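Box 3.1 A note on notation
Throughout this textbook, protein chains are presented in two layers. The first layer is the amino acid sequence; the second is a token string describing backbone geometry. Keep the layers aligned when reading.
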Amino acid sequence: MKLKGAVFDLDGTLASTAKAHKIAWELSLKQLGFKLKIDMESLLGKRAMDIALFLIEKAGINDINQKNELAKRLLEIKSSIFAPYIMKYAEPMPCAVQLINTLKKNHVKILIVTSSLKITALKVLEKININPDILISGDDVIRGKPDPEPTILALEKSSLRPEDIIFAVGDTIYDIISFSEAKIKTIYLTNGDIRVPIDENLLKKYNAIKINSLCDILMKL
């Protein structure tokens, strides 16, 4: 039997985690002495370290060395306090568990490519009760999405080629670009827990199909 796979983003695609991330980032900033309200839309799709750097700069720190040190500390704090908020607030996105279970029953490998740290991603997956065959996180790669590196690494780890992927799905344009540049042909953009307007011309450029939820894919199987 020829191996097949499906590629998924995690946050906003398989799991609703925006509230947990927002609380954890804001509390972590507070521990460092910064009062900063976070607009989650501006963080979507970014690697955790890139988010930390962005937030420290937004808090008014511009010295490169200081910014890097504070960003590392911010990320350490956020990772250490994140779990309870995931356990309290994270939920599977509509049809996520059903879709994954259906694919697994049909011997399709599940590849998850996330910009989150591995420790964070594992907590989310534990909460939503999804166990992928391959998990590539932001700390597994040098260049995160929209670069194709994490998607390509997931393919390599699963011994699959782009043409073996029946579809890839994410909730941000970063996901779409990464999947497309990794040569995956069928790509879906789903509504995440934070809805962000997407330029229709970009969807056409990267051959992405817009869907309302994972239920739309499930109904096609």
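Residues 56 and 66 are 9 Å apart (CA to CA). Strands lie at 4-8, 15-16, 91-92, 108-113, 134-136, 165-170, 187-189, 208-210.
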